Amino acid sequence: MKFKILLFLFLAQCFLFSQDNDALKYFPHKTGDLWEYFYSDGPMYTDTLQNLNIKDSTDSEGNIYLTQSAWRINPTQSPILLNSLETYKIDTANNFVFGAIEQNNNALLYKLNANLGDKWVIFDYQGNGFEMVRVDEIKEITLFGYTTILKSFVFYFTSDSTDTTGLDRNIDYLAKGFGLIYRGGGDLVGNIYLTGAVIDRILYGDTTDIITSIIDPSPILPNKFKLFQNYPNPFNPTTSIKFILSELSDVSLKVYNILGKEVKVLLIEELPRGIYSIQWNGKDNDGNILSNGTYLIRMLAGSHKKIIKTVLLK
Asked: pTM, whole model, 2 decimals?
């Protein structure tokens, strides 16, 4: 009898972890969702990062396109272990999340309904190995007082696509209802840990003014346009340009040389209210590396106009 009860409990647990009818909850995707992380690379450096869903849209096939912006806040500067601006495609029919890695701009990053031990290729080096992902762990955890399920996605390199182990690149922990709660390990320097979030306008964890400001958005999204000085400045080879929009705007962001000639179009797009960060790699519209010197970055957003100076040093 005892054996039958244990068998039943084991099968029930397997069913729980393999049936993800709400698998999309592993990747919250509504505009306004906000995460705050603690970053540490050991005793040498710590910081706080924020990651904000700034735009989501749905196409005719039901696919969701999500744009996120991340930054450090002590002081405001480019993020660590997250990208300043990241776009994802969420295949709602299959519960797949596609995004960019260094080798592939449309890599299948997460199979949200994957089972323990599942693995898949995200890039094929054509005879020189594979970048892959495997689901290494699925377990029940308690987070911010709520019981949920964690899935561990291990990104790794291997010479054989049938291998379940290899050279680990990094590990992402996704928790149902919360999204990314940890990133680190492998090749990465440091780790990030979730300390608080606002998801679907519900606050979890850290209750600092910074985190709660997404509910009363005025502290984090001021009711005014602002273009920040790029960072770093001078720069080599890349710099980040951060700006805030107080309303839906047609945005133009271009780079000019000191003679007033346009050399690079960074952005021409209609964007909703939010915080944005764009990277420039010091190249012109043809992909050529520009010479040392002073350049002008001009931004137009609706009726607003601002120009900042930057210096490229090689």
From this structure: 0.63
